[in-house]
Design brief:
Elements: H1 8-16, H2 20-37, E1 51-53, E2 56-58, E3 62-64, H3 75-79, E4 85-91, E5 104-107, E6 112-115, H4 124-133, E7 139-144, H5 155-166, E8 172-176, H6 191-212, E9 218-222, H7 228-240, E10 246-248, E11 269-272, H8 276-290, E12 296-299, H9 305-313, E13 318-321, H10 323-328, H11 331-343
Parallel strand pairs: 3-4, 3-13, 4-7, 7-8, 8-9, 9-10, 10-12, 12-13
Antiparallel strand pairs: 1-2, 5-6, 6-11
Helix pairs in contact: 5-6, 6-7, 7-8, 9-11
């Protein structure tokens, strides 16, 4: 059965009857088992609406955001959903369990998710093994972060360690400095820390490009909880250090519009529909500040094709989805691809 035809509305009540993280683990296990048994559906043919960015040809403008497949375990299963690109991670140098459970919460009334996962992953070596074992040969981004117990003043070391390892297999590398669930991580977006990180990443990128004979783009991922001055400063730094692109945005700490919901009191990053307006406002400001000098991958609150198209119209070159898949299922991918084709 084609993923686009999968009867997700019938399955969703069963998944929503489970704890969110249990449902997530069950979905990953089902896809992994289908791969082991060799019964994955044939990959959907990519629509012929390519976008050439950062030296890469994206078959379409819709990608999977990091977080769904943290360890690169189900790349081949996800490849059949019709995405133009996939992003796995966030991965850290060493394995880590993440924050204590429960740490993932659904807010169905708002079509929203709150998570405080804390970069739970099997470590960069395990992810590399999974990527190398996958048959997928499309565009694959790997999202990197720092271990929770690495002091923030040594964070650059963790990013460089991950970059060294994933460079040979990644189509691009996303640098997660904006998760609200790792203590002090967002401080890396502040002017001096951001400059130091970008200098180190660009220096190592040049060394690795010479070693491997190819240039792998690097894209920092920024938060939605930034004011105009901070967005301008980030844009200036991205241009100054000649970054390849940027991802906007991660989840938000704000709870505007959902304060009345009991689970809104849970700490962590909010994603889904309530994030859309704020993340799109940051996208629009960032696009204006960059003046088209580097591409933006937009993420945040896309639950239908019109919302994906709105991201393109606000200045994005590509769009990522994740939380929307929890509420809409695989059919969302094709809907967003069709909507953004009209905007191309």
């Amino acid at each position: 059965m084609s993923p686009a035809c999968f009867p997700y509305p019938l399955v969703r009540p069963l998944l929503f009857a489970l704890a969110p993280e249990t449902a997530h683990e069950l979905a990953i296990a089902a896809m992994r088992t289908a791969g082991w048994l060799g019964v994955l559906p044939a990959a959907e043919p990519w629509p012929d609406t390519p976008a050439v960015l950062m030296g890469l040809t994206f078959p379409n403008r819709i990608g999977l955001a990091a977080g769904l497949d943290k360890n690169g375990e189900v790349i081949d299963a996800l490849a059949g959903w019709g995405f133009g690109f996939l992003e796995v991670g966030t991965v850290t140098p060493r394995p880590q369990p993440g924050n204590p459970k429960p740490r993932l919460f659904r807010l169905p009334e708002a079509e929203a998710i709150i998570n405080r996962m804390g970069f739970n992953n099997h470590g960069v070596d395990a992810v590399l093994a999974n990527v190398r074992a996958a048959k997928f040969r499309g565009i694959l981004g790997i999202n990197i972060g720092k271990n929770f117990d690495t002091p923030i003043e040594r964070a650059v070391d963790d990013y460089l360690a991950c970059l060294d390892k994933v460079y040979a297999v990644a189509s691009y590398v996303a640098v997660n400095i904006s998760s609200p669930n790792t203590q002090n991580l967002r401080a890396l977006q502040e002017a001096s820390a951001f400059d130091a990180l970008l200098i180190a990443l660009k220096r190592r990128q040049a060394e690795l490009a010479e070693k491997h004979g190819r240039h792998v783009p690097i894209l920092p991922k920024i938060a939605p909880d930034l004011d105009e001055a901070q967005i301008q400063a980030i844009a200036d730094a991205l241009r100054r250090h000649r970054l390849d692109g940027v991802i906007a945005t991660n989840t938000t700490l704000a709870r505007s519009g959902i304060e009345h919901l009991p689970q809104a009191k849970e700490t962590g990053g909010l994603s889904g529909r309530p994030l859309f307006e704020r993340s799109t406002a940051v996208l629009r400001q960032l696009a204006a500040a960059l003046g088209g000098e580097l591409p933006i991958i937009a993420a945040g609150g896309v639950l239908d094709g019109a919302m994906a198209r709105a991201k393109i119209e606000a200045g994005a070159a590509l769009v990522q989805i994740y939380s929307g898949l929890i509420f809409r299922g695989p059919a969302l991918v094709r809907e967003c691809v069709a909507a953004t084709r009209q905007s191309a």
